[in-house]
Write a structure and sequence with these properties.
The complex is a heterodimer of chains A (about 375) and B (about 425).
Chain A (H helix, E strand, L loop, with lengths): L1 H28 L4 H12 L2 H25 L8 H16 L6 H30 L3 H24 L23 H5 L14 H18 L1 H11 L1 H6 L4 H24 L14 H11 L4 H18 L11 H31 L26
Chain B lengths: L1 H9 L2 H23 L7 H26 L7 H19 L1 H25 L4 H23 L23 E2 L4 H11 L4 H12 L2 E2 H19 L1 H11 L1 H6 L4 H27 L10 H11 L4 H21 L2 H23 L4 H20 L5 H19 L20
Antiparallel strand pairs in B: 1-2
Helix pairs in contact in B: 2-15, 3-8, 3-9, 3-12, 3-13, 3-14, 4-5, 4-6, 4-12, 4-13, 5-6, 5-12, 7-8, 9-10, 10-12, 13-14, 13-17, 14-17, 15-16
Classes of the chains: A mainly alpha (about 375), B mainly alpha (about 425).
Chain lengths: ~375, ~425
């Protein structure tokens, strides 16, 4: 057990150490003290307000990263979360004020619209891949640009708030479609929030999606097929799994989650779609999915840590330390973790093979050899 | 018809590009007369096209080197970003020529990082590329905050922009030829003026930086197809184990080619910086990805890659140089092209469904052409990317990437 835990934690430990060293060196070279930076960051982040902000931002990030991860699970690189998220945010925002329903139904309807828009936009690269064998990396990158143009077109011509002639933004999402805050619920337990600190209602949705993700991947036939297809497409095909069907289903779930993530901001802090809407989120989601090893638990940690570091870096400004150091820290963390995961994976694989020569390595556990980057098969051509 | 196709296929790639280009120009020439949109092929549009294309060609050639050695490179965008920052630094310190070298150096750093992850450690190539696209803007922003803020003659350096490069990169015009071609170009005669416009784009007011990138096309062809190094590099991209068994240092070759790839991407970034004499955050605006698309469009062949980059750039610069009106004419052109392709498929007994689809798309575009006064700028923005998607969709069955691209390869591994 201890051995298993240590082999799981070894790679992240190496990665964290490397990135902290690199960031410290960058600070020292530029004439700042890493220790002062660390102190400022911890002091800034260790407040209720900061922690709530992190949770509010990490929840949508978590959902979009799960969407990317489900694709990675079968070597499907959905770089298109950006476009799926963007269109879902815009269309859900525009649609939300077009009808009115009782609160629960209204929220559900808007969320469903966002999921459907995301899934349908993701369907395009899926269909192109299964019918014309178009590499999804390229088609999703192109579709991101198309989505950028299309959303600008739709916003200006159809979904704009017409009472504001010179501003390109949608109407505000009606109150009845906004997710309630969790403050009231949590204060029942005797905890009191500082003034103006609001814990958004998207958090339970994100947790629920994480649990469903786990059950789907490791407790259903679909999840089994998906993991087989990722590990060895040939084995999957010979055991009767239709790769085309799997691609279509998986990419639509991936896009649907990107769409759902958009409502995490749209129905809470950003109640309209305009240029301030946090559109960079899916890009970060790819990184977080990689950091979290495509596992719902790992991604939760990664999403929280990512937003935590970003939030903490705001505490550097008063100390005259450039907050951009967080970008160096996160960037090195990302590359050093993908490297150390790969190195540790290969080391574990060699050990397993040595220990059980002749037996087939594998079996499901949280220390599963990662499917992304497997040396044998399934790399995208 | 079939004999013509057969004749076309016996030509070498230069001749094919020439024939295809001439046919395309002829068709565009007809379109501009029919649609009354003279700017569709004017020298100014083509000069802008060439300028837009230069950085994309550089990046795409970068992708070519990397992928020909079997390393998929979606980190080109990030390498280009590093190129822009280092170009701006070198340019600010030592002038525009140093900027080009600095950009190549910065991009090469990104390339080496990609090589370290994918070749030495065997990380999945797409994953590593994504990571590099992440790191590069962060590094550039951090470096700007440390080095650029408050610098420059007018204190124009900020966290998201560099001090200005004082000197501009020189431009050259071939005396006599440039003016002569311009006067023919300005007459707007059918086809003749269009040919003159194309030629003029190459001899009138061309920046030296653009010329260097254009020269990289024949240089790449020479290096990859006419030298032992190129042969080894390509063999590594097709069948690394076979190459290894013949004594080729697979890791070393991959390192060199990915470093070249980064340097070329960085040079593309440097071109952008030299062009406006300043670095800006987000300056690359996805050109690295467009370069990647050009690479696939060009089927991993240098001339095809350059043609792809020119085609995308044509769409982009039409909008920027002369507004959205000629784009409308372009829709007519694309509709006609699709109709032609559809007829070809019907007579060539190709897939009926594909032909029907093409006919529907062509009809839709024609209807749009008839019913629209001016194409919305957002639609214009989307057009080049849709063209890429459509082309890749129809060309994917004929595309032939290097066989080993994307597959992590370990020393001593069979297969």
């Amino acid at each position: 057990m201890i051995k298993r835990i240590s082999s799981v934690l070894l790679a992240p430990a190496i990665a964290i150490l490397t990135s902290v060293i690199v960031a410290s060196l960058a600070l020292i070279v530029s004439g700042h003290s890493p220790l002062a930076a660390l102190r400022a960051m911890i002091e800034y982040v260790a407040t209720t307000d900061s922690l709530v902000t992190i949770l509010n931002r990490a929840a949508p990030l978590y959902v979009v990263a799960l969407g990317v991860a489900i694709g990675f699970k079968m070597n499907l690189f959905n770089i298109g979360a950006d476009g799926q998220y963007r269109l879902a945010a815009l269309i859900a925002a525009g649609a939300s004020s077009a009808f009115s329903l009782p609160r629960v139904l209204h929220i559900t309807a808007v969320i469903l619209i966002a999921i459907i828009v995301g899934a349908l936009w993701a369907l395009i690269p899926g269909v192109l891949k299964v019918t014309r064998n178009v590499n999804e990396v390229i088609s999703t990158i192109m579709l991101n640009y198309v989505a950028t143009g299309l959303s600008a077109y739709l916003l200006v011509n159809y979904l704009r708030n017409e009472s504001l002639p010179n501003v390109a933004e949608t109407k505000t999402v009606p109150e009845s479609a906004q997710l309630p805050s969790l403050n009231g619920f949590i204060e029942n337990f005797g905890f009191h929030f500082p003034r103006l600190t609001v814990l958004n209602g998207f958090l339970p949705i994100a947790i629920l999606v994480g649990i469903l993700f786990y059950l789907l991947i490791w407790r259903t036939r679909f999840g089994f097929d998906l993991r087989i297809t990722g590990a060895s497409p040939a084995a999957a095909r010979s055991s009767g799994v239709s790769p085309k069907g799997m691609i279509i289903k998986t990419i639509m779930i991936s896009g649907g989650l990107a769409g759902l993530a958009a409502t995490g901001f749209l129905l809470t802090d950003f109640t309209k779609y305009n240029e301030t809407f946090p559109l960079g989120l899916p890009f970060t989601g790819i990184a977080v999915a990689l950091l979290g090893r495509n596992h719902p638990g790992g991604i939760a940690v990664a999403a929280f840590a990512w937003m935590g570091i970003e939030q903490a870096s705001r505490g550097l400004l008063p100390e005259k330390i450039p907050p951009e150091i967080s970008k160096i820290l996160l960037g090195t963390l990302l590359i050093s973790s993908v490297i150390s995961f790969e190195v540790v994976r290969r080391r574990n694989l060699t050990q397993t093979i040595k220990q059980a020569a002749g037996a087939i390595p594998g079996g499901r556990s949280s220390s599963d050899p990662p499917h992304v980057g497997s040396t044998s098969a399934g790399a995208p051509a | 018809m079939n004999t013509l196709t057969a004749r076309f296929l016996t030509l070498n790639s230069w001749q094919r590009a020439l024939v295809a280009g001439a046919l395309g120009l002829f068709a565009l020439s007809i379109t501009r007369i029919v649609a009354g949109a003279d700017d569709l092929t004017s020298g100014n549009t083509l000069i802008a096209t060439l300028a837009t294309a230069a950085p994309i060609i550089a990046v795409a050639l970068g992708g070519l080197f990397s992928e020909r050695s079997g390393v998929a490179n979606i980190g080109l965008e990030g390498m280009m970003v590093l190129g822009t920052w280092f170009a701006a630094f070198a340019g600010w310190q030592w002038g525009p020529w140093a900027a080009l070298a600095g950009g190549a150096f910065g991009g090469m750093l990104g390339g080496l990082m990609h090589a370290l992850a994918t070749v030495t450690f065997g990380v999945d190539q797409i994953v590593s590329g994504v990571a590099i696209n992440f790191i590069a803007p962060g590094v550039a922003r951090f470096l700007s905050s440390e080095i650029f803020v408050g610098e420059g003659a007018n204190k124009e350096g900020t966290i998201s922009s560099s001090p200005n490069i004082t000197d501009a990169m020189g431009r050259f015009s071939v005396p006599g030829l440039a003016d002569g071609l311009k006067s023919i170009d300005d007459k707007r005669w059918f086809f003749v003026s269009d040919v003159a416009g194309v030629l003029r784009a190459f001899v009138d007011q061309m920046a030296w930086s653009t010329l260097i990138i254009l020269l990289l096309i024949p240089i790449s062809i020479y290096v990859l197809w006419r030298t032992p190094f190129g042969l080894r590099l390509r063999s590594v991209g097709e069948k690394p184990s076979a190459a290894e068994s013949l004594g080729v240092g697979v890791y070393r070759l991959k390192y060199i080619s990915v470093a070249i790839s980064g340097a070329l991407a960085g040079l593309g970034g440097a071109w952008l910086v030299v062009n406006v004499r300043q670095y800006g955050e987000g300056q690359t605006a996805g050109r690295g990805f467009l370069g990647l698309a050009a690479l696939i469009f060009g089927n991993w062949q240098p001339i095809g890659v350059a043609l792809g980059a020119l085609l995308f750039s044509y769409g982009i610069s039409l909008q920027q140089a002369v507004g959205t009106k000629p784009i409308k004419a372009l829709y007519l052109f694309i509709a006609a092209a699709f109709l032609g392709l559809c007829l070809f498929m019907v007579f060539g007994r190709k897939s009926k469904r594909g032909a029907l689809m093409l006919a529907v798309v062509a009809g839709g575009l024609y209807a749009y052409y008839l019913n629209t006064d001016e194409v919305a700028s957002q639609i214009v923005y989307m057009t080049p990317y849709i063209i890429v998607l459509v082309v890749i969709t129809f060309a994917s069955s004929r595309s032939r990437p290097p066989a080993a691209v994307g597959i992590p390869w370990r020393r001593g591994q069979s297969g």
